[in-house]
Amino acid sequence: MSFSIKKSVAVLGAAAMMVSVAACGSGDTGAKSDNSGTSADGKSTITVWSWDTTIEDAAKKYMEENPNVTIKVLNVGTSAQTQVSLNNAIAAGKGAPDISLMEYHSIAQFALSDALEDLTDKTSGFDADYPAGIWKGVQVNGKVYGLPVDSGPNALFYNKAVFDKAGITEAPKTWEEYYQDAKKIRALGDDYYITSDAGDNNQSTVFMSLIAQAGGAPFKVDGDKVSIDLVNDEGTKKAVEYWQRMIDEDLINTKVTSWSDEWNKGLGDGTIASLVTGAWMPGNLLSGAAQASGNFRVATVPQWNEGENVNSFNGGSSLTLIKGTKNADAAFKFMEYVCHSKEGIKNRVSSGAFPADSESFKSDYYLNGTDDLNKYFGGQKYTEVLAQAAEQEVGDFEFLPFWSQVQNTFGDYAGKAYRKEEKLSKSMEDFQKSLIDYAEGQGFTVEK
């Protein structure tokens, strides 16, 4: 497929702060180099774009052990800003890095536009080292386009002190129990809610992960053909109907937007009593809602049907190799060190990263946690719960190859339902139409 990804991030580019890439390396060391990434003097220079500081820590360690390799780690902004900058560099034909950190939901967009190297042959047998759900995250149409750096299996983070006050003795095991618990917490007072959700853009991944856990598969991608069904897909309908009930009965705080100061305050004082979000959340709770230290606990997510063991992912990142780099071999060796070697992974986890590989979930260096977080979660072995979450079953949810459009327009439609201007089913119907129009405008064939 040869369509350009330039248009596919147009909305994102308008919304996000543009980051200059003029000074960023293109993977060219300035010396004559072959495809091994080794120059005439035997040295290699690799440029990496990453917002994750543990990548920089890994690079320092790697250079100590490989003195002929120079790794330049550049932070060009958030995940969204990195997408924009990478797209601009690729479109310009210069300025792109050798390696870029990329969230799983962004891989399809760049892989299908032929911007990433196919790593399938280089990663034979790697799948055995990662949970199936995480390994799916780096694949598009059965081919591998990245190595998992971290992961975001969903978990339920809840304020045990508030749950106790409401007479809830254990974390809900099903979504029906969660609904009943929401009524108990609401009865504590006007300010108390089991969770908050304003239907803003930041909630797009949360909502889609609920759909995924319900068995939903509203999006399908086959080359330049896509299907979009947010109306009749059974898993989507299940999630929409459930969340509509929560909205109708005023059981969730629909006025506080996620990641705002008010949101952090609610998590800190217990008026927002729980969150279902990715396993990367503990550090954010520690920094944003320090007031609740000792009160929070973690559980695996409620199930749609009692006895099931199904989860979905919210976030998680990989390292990708940018197509056309002259440092492909040297760059992949560094990627392999960061993501697949025991030493590289251990160093990153010790720096605070949430792992992606199966071995780490059983290791002392992960399971022992950190002193601050052990205290925050009241002495609970929270790491064991998150490791369990990573090993749960996941469905076949696919991301559209223009996911930035999904993320950056979700709130325009869903927000109306959360403000009770219309039903969520109508919001999803309109959202579906907008995505179909966008897909067709980008040159995709939308299968009806």
Automatic annotation (TrEMBL):
Matching SUPFAM superfamilies: Periplasmic binding protein-like II
Entries under InterPro entries matching the protein: Bact_solute-bd_prot1, SBP, SBP_1_CS
Swiss-Prot/TrEMBL keywords: Signal, Transport
Residues making up the signal peptide according to the UniProt record: 1-22
Source superkingdom: Bacteria
Protein name: Extracellular solute-binding protein
Keyword Signal (UniProt): yes
Source organism per UniProt: Bifidobacterium aerophilum
UniProt keyword annotation of Hydrolase present: no
Any one Gene Ontology BP term: transmembrane transport
Pfam family, one: SBP_bac_1
Protein family (similarity comment): Belongs to the bacterial solute-binding protein 1 family.
